[in-house]
Design goal:
Structural class of chain A: mainly alpha
Shape of chain B: elongated
Distance between the termini of chain A: 45 Å
Helix content of chain B: over 70%
Helix content of chain A: over 70%
Order of helices and strands of chain A: HHHHHHH
Number of helices of chain A: 7
Oligomer: heterodimer
Radius of gyration of chain B: 18 Å
Strand content of chain B: under 5%
Distance between the termini of chain B: 27 Å
Strand content of chain A: under 5%
Number of domains of chain B: 1
Largest interface: A-B, 23 and 21 residues
Largest sheet of chain B: none
Chain lengths: 245, 222
């Protein structure tokens, strides 16, 4: 199905009705298997001990926190360039989910950092840029709540989203550009991952599960937003009818 | 081109004659710098060490505060509609307004910085470094802030939100501005690398800021 077919909200709702359960079941199954593997099967790291299990949550939420912003950036382009009618719905729905994943990433990272680095927080390049990502998410959510008309809010948020997208490559490459405390990239790199398969397999299962969870949450949030806008339109119409009668 | 020069001159005249924008900004800068020693204690050695940071924070806050009226004022009196219908591209109009805003509010901060750094017990070399980094860095603050100012057209009752939206984007400027000035103060680290990155950030925001601001204004008005 082409993206343009989903421009019709009714058709999108039908698609969402079919897709949400599939993504939801996939997410529940994969996350259950992933958590079982991560907490009971995967070996302890020879240096990190049991704390390595935190990273099965930390790494997927970091990936999703960034991926969600990429989705928002594409949606922002959809709003400003192609004027796709559901692009700003997608963008609004994605912001709180991305903020939640980013917050989860920061919190689990802090819990891991306390025993491993001896501190909850350092002003390291990657940590700082991830915190900036969270601030941008929160600013965008505040922007959505300030402007009442969804169309105007969507275009304003789209401009800000595109400006904030500068931060994504900074987060991705922060560990390569500045040699600070956070370890360099170890999964997606030239020459293959530096992680042993006994740890890598549960990690990838968790990552795919988290992605499925994101798809399910995003589609449900979009559906809710469409319904919320319909309710808003109906209320305005009812009020107008009441005023003229 | 003449239209843009006329716009810059008009904005400068307004800034000087109405409301005393530049003066209030410098006064706020002074207030922030004066309040700091009360909060941290009048230890001159400590103040000398963190002086560049205090000056940069003061300049950042002062330039954020001046932002939200930049386009909103023109929207209220209808000037913005005229600018939109003019043949000059909106991006260039935004750039001209940003330039005028920087001359009216950013440049006075740079000029006030040497005087204020005496209050913080900075040495001549450190004063030079802070003034130089502020001179290069404040345009970046203004032109990134231009996006927030353009969003204020949509927001109407934006105020504080504009500052909240722009603050995360201006963090890199703060980082490189302060690391360049600190490098000059302590002498251990190279001054050139963070300083050239600061220049690059300024030039980049000079291009991107007006484009994004133009898009935001168009999005906010129709």
């Amino acid at each position: 199905m082409a993206l343009i077919d989903l421009a019709n909200p009714t058709r999108f709702l039908a698609f969402a009705r079919a897709a949400i359960p599939i993504a939801g079941v996939l997410a529940a199954g994969l996350l259950a298997v992933g958590i079982y593997l991560a907490f009971f099967v995967a070996p302890e790291d020879y240096q990190q001990g049991a704390t390595v299990r935190i990273l099965y949550i930390h790494v997927p939420s970091a990936w999703l926190g960034m991926a969600c912003y990429v989705v928002m950036t594409l949606s922002a382009l959809g709003t400003l360039v192609w004027k796709h009618p559901l692009a700003d719905v997608s963008q609004k729905a994605a912001a709180p989910i991305g903020a939640a994943f980013t917050l989860l990433c920061l919190v689990t990272g802090a819990l891991w950092g306390r025993p491993m680095w001896g501190t909850y927080w350092v002003w390291d390049a990657r940590l700082t840029s991830t915190l900036v990502l969270l601030l941008i998410y929160l600013g965008l959510i505040a922007l959505w709540r300030t402007v009442e008309d969804p169309g105007r809010a969507g275009r304003a948020a789209a401009v800000l989203t595109l400006v904030g997208a500068v931060n994504i490559p900074i987060i991705k490459f922060s560990v390569d550009w500045w040699n600070t405390l956070h370890q360099p990239t170890s999964v997606i790199r030239l020459g293959g991952p530096t992680i042993h398969s006994s740890i890598l397999t549960p990690l990838l299962i968790m990552a795919i599960g988290a992605t499925a969870l994101f798809v399910a949450l995003h589609l449900s949030a979009m559906r809710n937003e469409i319904l919320r806008r319909r309710v808003r339109t109906l209320r305005i119409l009812a009020a107008q009818r009441g005023a003229t009668a | 081109m003449t239209a843009l020069i006329a716009l810059v001159v008009r904005d400068l005249r307004l800034a000087v004659r109405v409301g005393g924008g530049a003066f209030v900004g410098v006064l706020f800068f002074l207030a922030v710098v004066v309040v700091m020693p009360f909060a941290i204690g009048p230890d001159l050695n400590l103040l000398r060490r963190i002086g560049p940071a205090i000056l940069w924070i003061g300049a950042l806050l002062a330039s954020l505060l001046a932002l939200d009226r930049l386009f909103a004022q023109d929207q209220e009196d209808g000037t913005l509609d005229l600018l939109l219908t003019a043949r000059t591209p909106l991006e260039l109009v935004a750039a001209a307004k940003g330039l005028a805003h920087w001359i009216a509010t950013g440049l006075p901060l740079v000029l006030a910085a040497p005087v204020l750094s005496l209050l913080l017990n900075l040495e001549p070399l450190a004063i030079g470094a802070v003034v130089l980094t502020l001179l290069v860095g404040t345009p970046a603050l203004t032109f990134i802030g231009l996006v927030g100012a353009a969003l204020a057209v949509t927001l109407r009752r934006g105020g504080l939100l504009v500052a909240v939206l722009i603050l995360p984007l201006s963090i890199p400027i703060l980082i490189f501005g302060i690391s360049a000035s600190n490098a000059a103060v302590t002498g251990g680290l190279p001054f050139g690398a963070p300083f050239t990155i600061l220049c690059a950030l300024s030039l980049g925001s000079l291009v991107l800021g007006p484009i994004a601001a133009g898009a935001a204004i168009r999005a906010g008005l129709d």
